[in-house]
Design brief:
heterodimer; A: Cytochrome Bc1 Complex, Chain A, domain 1; Cytochrome Bc1 Complex, Chain A, domain 1; five-stranded mixed beta sheet; 16 helices; about 40% helix; B: alpha/beta
């Protein structure tokens, strides 16, 4: 593999247009065999490459710094609708061409949207890379937005909402939780959008959104897998180098969420066979120095069958079918979510008292050294699993690049976890996992 | 010694799989769920180690263990950090040769499995899939849910679990697979030392009667309150694993509903926006398995969507696919095949399928040639020969009073039945 400096020199030779000239930003090792390199084109497009020849596949990710937080009331769900629209016609390819060409090449293409980002990806046989680069560059700049496409996708998204939220008891509960856990922050509205907003989008809304957020300077490309760095960067230069980076990208707005001083409780009757409790504790941002300690706490409490709460709720007391916890990986402070899926006839109050007791115990005593060791081993295992395929590597790197502003930070995360002490966990649990900081949704059984 | 190894030094991870040729088809009638309970009770740990200590050991090693039961196999799957591969093998060997099978664990496990069945009623898609199989296969063993029912689980005793274990596992009729960061010779040596009497034994190939189609089109509405959306399955019998028309049918089905670009997805989603997903799927087993289309349309146009799908199905059978559709499907199947083997654990899995499920070796080794060799005539003949437009099972999870009359009016419907979603 050529050194990055030699690579850049060759790629920039004879290139006059500023937008199409490469710069190397970073070159870091991942293990003994792999390297992550970060480049930038003159128009602001950031590209990260990770060559890994363990399988004849390649993964191509396009991450945009736009998610539901960039919407406004009355227009919720636009970032997600847009994700759908991006699979439609461009000035160079009619409707249906994108999927036909991708599938014909054996590529799987899909996308995802959440609060802080949207990304598009293809996992493909290695020979398909030139096609992926051409089609992704094309839809970044040449998307056609007209009434038929927008109407049809609005109907698809309305159906998706019914499936994931309206008819799904957990989806509905999550929507209620975020709506009430936040007062000002856009995290309070659902990424999929409200049904009224979905129905109300116009072509003008979509065009404006595209103009504002879809530009090289708001995007990061990640290429992972079996490919030639020189050829790939040269193709990126060819297809993206002519794009202007001059579109106006919104500065990140700051939303100051007022502190929560008392528990908020809501009830959700639903046609469900068993009752459930969903809790959301106000938690720090993914970037916060307390987050690794909370991640460790989550492992101690919920990580697998040896965890404290699984053992207590599911095995010893047989109160719940399952318990689980997670911390929202958001740019701004989010929630530490906890689910308790009660068994038939079991009391919510008993479960809640038990949970409070255990959280208080963890907050006052902290985890044992053995618990910390188990948690660390499990996090290491999860990390390695997430890096098994080219697609997994690209996704992790894309997430860290977009949320933490450094794709290579993914390789440092385990070290951050290793630095967490019993005292850190104790302090973080005592600080964040207090009843007064939480919103509680009780899902009640409504007889059919 | 039956040990399969797939080496790869990319990440310091090792997967281990212990696979038995015994699954839910071995469950006695009325005691459905026996294979699953046996696998999960074994999973609770070996003799001499409490469940708690066993779980602590696994977690400390950076290991996870799960049990999957299918119709014809039970698989104990483990994954571990490379440095702890050998200690994990020791634990797994104890688990297989000396499972505790404790009465106290068994009682708790049974209650947990029953609670899981009740909780599953929340998931409309799973409900639709299970009801579809029940309706399609009727009394045939393929209709059985691997997890059993609340009542069938209640009838299973610890003695029956012990005897299932003794019959199907204790004698060493299993395969061990290792994939990941370990070289072949090391993996074999370690497995031999922990599983010394593992012999290559074919699992008992229990006789499975032929599956039969119920004549006519039959609608089953799984009635659930407050549904704004429906889960719709339309299908019939498909193919056997050793059917000479299997590959032509795989190609034809891929052209019809196996990709986003196929006519099923295009007509249902891209043109009308009626469902977030719309795919057709062809399964195969020793006897004819299911072929089905699944969509999730809103309640107000669910019957219209079903009618459209029936039209598309008839069109597919009567007129067949075109040459361009055939070559598109072949390209997709061949080009995307690399994703069936891009990790060592996937490569191991397909080798285990060959050994355990009687899948012909050339299906894996000559996949691309078999796909490329399908002609247009073969694809269309296979579709006409295997997929019926007359004998169809239509299952819809919906609020019955919103959709029943419209479904009754679908062309050719012979019967319509409404069943409550929580009937047990």
């Amino acid at each position: 593999m050529a050194t990055p400096q030699v690579l850049i020199e060759r790629l920039n030779r004879g290139v006059q247009k500023r937008n199409a000239r490469w710069a190397l930003l970073r070159d870091v090792a991942f293990g003994d065999a792999l390297r992550l390199r970060r480049f930038r084109l003159g128009n602001g497009l950031t590209v990260l490459t990770l060559v890994d020849r363990s399988a004849p596949t390649v993964s191509y990710h396009s991450w945009f710094r736009v998610g539901s937080r960039h919407e406004r009331p009355g227009k919720t769900g636009l970032a997600h609708l847009f994700e759908h629209l991006m699979f439609n016609a461009t000035r160079n390819h009619p409707t249906g061409d994108f999927d036909r060409l991708m599938e014909g090449a054996g590529a799987e293409a899909n996308a995802a949207t959440w609060t802080d980002w949207t990304y598009y990806y293809e996992n493909a046989p290695r020979d398909a890379l030139p096609l992926l680069i051409e089609l992704e560059a094309d839809r970044m700049a040449n998307l056609v937005l007209r009434v038929p496409q927008v109407s049809s996708e609005k109907e698809v998204v309305a159906n998706e909402r019914k499936q994931r939220v309206d008819d799904d008891v957990e989806g509905k509960a999550l929507e209620l939780l975020y709506e009430n856990a936040f007062v000002r922050h856009p995290y309070r509205w659902p990424t999929i959008g409200s049904m009224d907003d979905i129905r109300g989008f116009t072509v003008k809304d979509c065009r404006e959104f595209y103009r504002t957020h879809y530009a090289p300077s708001n995007a990061t490309i990640i290429i992972a897998g079996d490919f030639s760095e020189l050829k790939a960067l040269s193709l990126v230069q060819k297809h993206y180098g002519g794009l202007s980076g001059a579109r106006r990208i919104e500065e990140r707005r700051v939303f100051k969420e007022p502190p929560q001083r008392a528990e908020r409780v809501f009830q959700l009757p639903a046609p469900t066979p068993t009752e459930k409790i969903l809790l959301g504790y106000r938690a720090p941002s993914f970037l916060d120095r307390d987050t690794p300690a909370l991640v460790l706490a989550n492992e101690v409490l919920f990580g697998g069958q040896s965890s404290r709460l699984h053992r207590l709720f599911c095995l010893d007391e047989e109160l719940a079918l399952s318990v689980r916890g997670s911390i929202s990986p958001f740019v701004d402070p989010g929630l530490f979510e906890m689910w308790i899926l009660l068994r038939e006839g079991k009391k919510k109050a008993v479960a809640l008292a038990l949970l409070d007791r255990e959280l208080a115990r963890l907050g006052s005593e902290g985890p044992t050294p053995i618990e910390l060791e188990k948690a660390m081993s499990q996090l290491e295992l999860s990390f390695l699993h997430s890096m098994e395929t080219a697609g997994g590597k690209a996704e992790q790197i894309g997430f860290y690049e977009t949320v933490v502003n450094d794709g290579a930070a993914v390789f440092e995360r385990l070290e951050a976890y290793r630095d967490v002490s019993t005292r850190d966990v104790k302090r973080a649990v005592a600080k964040y996992l207090r009843p007064s900081r939480r919103t509680r949704i009780e899902i009640l059984r409504r007889a059919s | 010694m039956s040990v399969l190894v797939e080496s790869s030094g990319v990440l310091p991870l090792v997967d281990v799989e212990i696979a038995f040729a015994a699954g839910s088809l071995q469950d006695p009638a009325g005691r459905e769920g026996l294979a699953l309970l046996t696998g999960h009770l074994m999973r609770r740990g070996p003799a001499g180690l409490s469940q708690q200590r066993f779980e602590d050991r696994l977690a400390s090693l950076g290991a996870r263990v799960s049990v999957q039961v299918s119709m014809r196999s039970t698989r104990i799957r483990a994954t571990v950090l490379r440095r702890n591969f050998e200690p994990l093998l020791g634990l797994l060997s104890d688990l297989v040769w000396r499972p505790a099978l404790r009465a106290s664990d068994f009682a708790k496990l049974k209650r947990q499995a029953q609670a899981a069945l009740i909780s599953r009623l929340d998931d409309d898609q799973t409900l639709a899939a299970l009801c579809f199989r029940e309706a399609l296969f009727g009394e045939h063993p393929y209709a059985r849910a691997q997890g059993g029912t609340v009542n069938s689980l209640a009838r299973i005793s610890l003695q029956q679990v012990e005897s299932f274990y003794a019959r199907n596992i204790e004698k060493g009729a299993f395969l061990v697979g290792v994939a990941g960061d370990v070289i072949d010779s090391e993996a074999r040596a370690l497995v031999s030392s922990h599983f010394p009497s593992t012999k290559r034994q074919k699992g008992k190939d229990s006789a499975v009667p032929a599956t039969r189609t119920r004549p006519g089109r039959h609608v089953i509405i799984v009635d659930k309150p407050e549904r704004t959306q429906t889960q719709l399955y339309i299908g019939t019998l498909g193919a056997r694993t050793r059917d000479r028309k299997l590959f032509p049918l795989i190609v034809s089905n891929t052209a019809f509903g196996g990709t986003f670009s196929g006519p099923l997805m295009q007509e249902v989603r891209a043109v009308r926006g009626w469902s977030y997903s719309a795919y057709s799927r062809l399964l195969h087993a020793k006897q004819r398995e299911a072929w089905y289309m699944s969509t999730a349309p809103a309640a107000e146009y669910s019957a219209d969507c079903a009618a459209l799908q029936l039209d598309l199905l008839e069109h597919w059978i009567d007129r067949g696919i075109k040459k361009s559709q055939l070559s598109f499907a072949q390209r997709w199947l061949i080009n995307s095949h690399c994703f069936d083997r891009d990790t060592p654990s996937k490569r191991l899995e397909s080798r285990l399928d060959v050994e355990l499920l009687g899948i012909p070796r050339n299906y894996v080794e000559k996949h691309d040639e078999l796909v490329a060799g399908v002609s247009l005539q073969e694809a269309n003949e296979a579709t006409r020969a295997r997929i019926s437009t007359r004998d169809l099972t239509i299952v819809v999870v919906a609020t019955a009073n919103q959709v029943a009359s419209a479904f009754e009016q679908l062309p050719g419907v012979k019967s319509l039945e409404i069943v409550p979603f929580d009937r047990g």
